[in-house]
Amino acid sequence: MNEKNPQFLLINKPVGWTSFDVVGFIRKGILRSAQNDDKKIKVGHAGTLDPFATGLLIVGVGREATKKLDEFKKLPKTYIATVELGATSDTYDVTGKITPTVILNEAKDPLNSRHKGILRCTQNDIKEVLKNFIGKQNQIPPMFSAKKIHGQRLYKLARQGKTVERQPSEIEIYNLKILEYSWPILKIEVQCSTGTYIRSLAHDLGQKLGIGAYCQGLVRTAIGPYELKNAQKLA
């Protein structure tokens, strides 16, 4: 491998790994098999995945490849999100502090003591609310995110217990489809523009339903025409 031979890799990112962990793993693998003049080979990725998420990550190897990564970042993304209803998370995902949501004066749910007192939504209720998220819209990024405000990463401020005002970003959700639903777990497929936070979508869905929700699991299945089924797993 050398800088005149750029390449792109489709990687299935494991759960618990950061996107930079994947880049580091691939760079070390290249250095182990590289010649001395290959030690400065650049490696980068197109589109960050949170550590709790899995799925497709496009990695560029070589200076020419890393220069072209922005082209992949602009492509639409497809995700499968597992959403737990009836609870919230301060990070909007499974890694945060989970707080069950209790709605007073509702019948108790005998199936799950964690969700006692919560109104159980029907699938039709969810379908109607999901319609509100289709199309262009402004989305406020979560505090626990890598977005910078005044030069500081939001997640670093959040870990200090600070909350700052965030400006919404324009995103577009092209399609939302329910794949499975059995209270309190909802699985949806989301096709969206770059810059969309699926964690925020899950949180906002819970707010619209009036019962709270957070993203329990997330898999990125496609970036434009590139699909997870063609990605390689890391050893």
Word description of this protein:
The chain is an alpha+beta fold and 235 residues long. It has two domains: 7-74, no CATH class; 77-223, 2-Layer Sandwich (Pseudouridine synthase), CATH 3.30.2350. The protein has six helices and 14 strands. The strands form three sheets. Strands 1, 2, 3, 4, 7, 10, 11, 12, 13 and 14 form a ten-stranded mixed sheet that branches. Strands 5-6 form a two-stranded antiparallel sheet. A two-stranded antiparallel sheet has the order 8-9. Strand 12 (213-223) and strand 13 (226-227) form a beta hairpin. The two termini are 20 Å apart.
Properties at a glance:
single chain, 235 residues, alpha+beta, Pseudouridine synthase, 2 domains, ten-stranded mixed sheet, two-stranded antiparallel ribbon, 6 helices, 22% helix, 34% strand, globular
Tell me the number of strands. Answer: 14
- Mean pLDDT reading: 85
Structural class: alpha+beta
Q: What's the SSE pattern?
A: EHEEHHEEEHEEEHEEHEEE
Biggest sheet, open or closed, and with what strands and sense?
Answer: 10 strands, mixed
**If helices are DSSP runs of H or I spanning 4 or more residues, what is the number of helices?**
6
Residue share in β-strands: 25-35%
In the CATH hierarchy, the third-tier topology of the largest domain is known as Pseudouridine synthase
Q: Count structural domains.
A: 2
Distance separating the two termini = 20 Å
Superfamily at the CATH H level of the largest domain?
Pseudouridine synthase
Question: What are the segments in which pLDDT stays under 50 over at least 5 consecutive residues?
Answer: 104-117
**What is the CATH top level name of the largest domain?**
Alpha Beta
Binned, the helix content reads 10-25%
Radius of gyration: 20 Å
